[in-house]
Amino acid sequence: MESTRQGTKAHGHRVTSEVGRLRTVLLHRPGAELKRLTPRNNDKLLFDGIPWVGRAQEEHDAFAQALRDRDVEVLYVTELLQQVLEYEGARARAIADTIDDNRWGDQLRRVVRGYLEDLDPEDLAQVLVAGLAHEELKTAHGLVYRLMDRLDFIIDPLPNLLFMRDNSAWIGDRVAVTSLAMPARRRESTLTGLIYAWHPRFAGVEPVYDPSLEHVEGGDVLLLCPGVIAVGTGERTTPAGVERLARKVFDAGLAHTVLAVPIMQERATMHLDTVCTMVDVDTVVMYPPIAHSLTAHTVTAANGDLRVEGPRPFLEAAAEAMGLDRLKVIDTGLDPVTAEREQWDDGNNTLAVAPRLAVAYERNIETNAHLEAAGIEVIRIGGSELGSGRGGPRCMSCPILRDDPR
User: Is 276 among the residues known to form the active site?
Assistant: First the structure.
């Protein structure tokens, strides 16, 4: 294919809230990369268990179909990636980024480059996502290759690509290609960045953030309403990342207020959306133990710099920034043990398809019952295998187009 892409903005991409009617979403259907997980490597690759891949695919297919049944267009990242790898420039960029690995040495790098250059777009996309094992590179030689364990990966798989929320986030009509904190995930942003830079669907899109900057992950970014963004800072997103993102969105006119929200730096609360998500324009569901202890620093632009105020209770600071008398909280009323179990199982990680309509894992029985008692329609999906990487419906989805909220 010719070396420059063709295309115009034929499709919309704009997201200003968490709850406006969802029109287009980007997903990744789990595949061969999950089959690479073993008890030997699952900790390094950030999974708490070894998923049953076939069942995980069935669960994900049901999730995608539930969205289509509500008139949501579903895009798959691997299909978009295959399409952009038809372009000479995108293909060269993908290979160059992949071989930029100082573990290899010059000899192995040359062999890997030649191997990747010989692959067609479909097979190249497969390797970029599922990785390349030592034993699969039959033509390799040299000291580095000889001293590698035969069970090691030359190119690591990306099982966490399943959680599409983290490696990019749309803010208005601009995309933040994020800077992922964990080494096992950093190539994810390279692939999504390649798609946004080369796919005709996204022609003309300007990024508002890029992976070279301070760590920011999409699971920490909540668009509370047009102009107001809450950003968690904890295990994954750093305070410096929140500050950098605030400067970027203020300069681009995408927001007037950023709330920096400290969260516990531990795996159970790795992102803000593991403890708080929105289900209506003025309503959140939150993990009960922190509902009234979460705080926020309010960041606004001031004379070319940033003004930082607080901390204040998160619910109070958010309501004021959103122009509300108060931000409603669905009181799940769970006993401490059930609350901890259902938070671990992503009970608070809901995906709003529209105001008062949300997708949630079916296993969180009590949380879902409380949502429905509060007037939220719950679309239940299976997640016994999908949840083994610590992520729920919001984590698995990157909204690209939502209606502006009323």
Answer: no
